[in-house]
Amino acid sequence: MKKIVNIAIFVVAIITCVLAVCFASAFDQDKMANYNEAQMVNADNPQMIADFEATTPETLPAFVDQYRSEGATLSENLKAQQLQKDILYTYIVELGELTEETFPEYQANFPSHAKSLFAQADNAQKYTDGFAAVQDFSKLENYISKLNDEYSVIKQDYIHQKNYNKAYNSIVNQADGVNQVVSETKKAEDLSTLKVDIAGYVSQGKLLNVTVMFGYLLFFVTIAMLLYFALKAIFSNIKNSYKSLLVIVAFVILVFIGYLIASPEMTPSAIKMQHTVQQVKWIGAGMFVFYIAFIGAICAIVGTAISSAIKNRK
Questions:
Q1: What is the pTM of this model?
Q2: Helices 103-117 and 60-96: angle between axes, nearest 10 degrees
Q3: Residues 258/285, Cβ–Cβ less than 8 Å
Q4: What is the 3 state secondary structure string of 111-126?
């Protein structure tokens, strides 16, 4: 059984390495922006990529007109989305600036103030009802925390849509650039080149996804087998392995404590990287475990050195 597992891990590792080499050989670092644009559009709007691949010099003007028009709609939607984001941000800032002394006055004036603040908000009633439930200043912090969680999701979606719009317009502009070529022969050549480039970026993305999948598979299979054989060795001779078992239990407890004390706060960088609250907490837990392990290793080294020095003096 152990040999079969080792062979399976070895095969997966070889496949992963081969795929990684193929991706590295095909990937052009200088075209990173084009690569990211094609990947984003293909993920969110594969029909656009398919339509472009089917485009001919004769149908290219229709393609540009169609997607230019849809791009204008996307821009308008993005502006509307930004407005909702900004309204919520303004609301959160206002609440965050309140003190125990200024809260009663703000609460008293809120019904009239809310009419102007949420005049263009899609969730006006939700926000007014939410603040109405905050009966005193002590409950305000919890309400602001909920609003911040909501804002993080909205901002993440806004950033994604903004990047998508940019990638979308870039491809349309490239297609329009080819469409503006006067010479029919050169237009056909440039269109063919652009189609090959975009298809290449998309295929590289698929190759990268497969490579990452095999990489994760190799990682988790390796970890699972290490845990399996380690636990098997421990429980087969549990009397002599209690120290190892205690280390494993201590590590699990450490991870659990790290997750409990990790902050769920969505920092600007976490929002930009599209992390969720749970991912942020796990990252915080990982950092906690790393710091504790690092400090523990330093203490162990210093302790060993001191203990050796004391023994040598005796």
A1: 0.69
A2: 160
A3: yes
A4: HHHHHHHCCCCCCHHH
